[in-house]
Design a protein that fits this description.
The chain is α+β, with helices and mostly antiparallel strands and 71 residues long. Helices cover 31% and strands 35% of the residues. The chain is built from 2 helices and 4 strands; from the N terminus they run E-H-E-E-H-E. A hairpin with a 2-residue loop joins strand 2 (33-39) and strand 3. The radius of gyration is 11 Å and the shape is globular.
Length: 71
């Protein structure tokens, strides 16, 4: 993993804060995710760009049943 993580803010359609906690936990289990912080309708994700792309993260959110995109 690189020394500096990249930060991305993702809007997640229809995601409540409680659902965001579940999605953030799923993301945090992925290799390359440093931190995932949920809020109402969005996630702040810090990740290692040498291991993941933003699209990898968006696909992982889709697997949790939500549509996501960069804010």
């Amino acid at each position: 993993m690189t020394n500096t993580a990249t930060r991305v803010l993702l809007g997640v359609r229809g995601m409540s804060r409680d659902a965001g906690t579940t999605v953030a936990q799923a993301l945090s289990a992925m290799p390359g995710i440093v931190r995932a912080t949920p809020d109402e309708g969005q996630l702040e994700v810090h990740y290692d760009p040498s291991q993941l792309t933003v699209m990898d993260i968006v696909r992982a959110i889709r697997r949790q049943g939500f549509l996501a995109g960069m804010i």
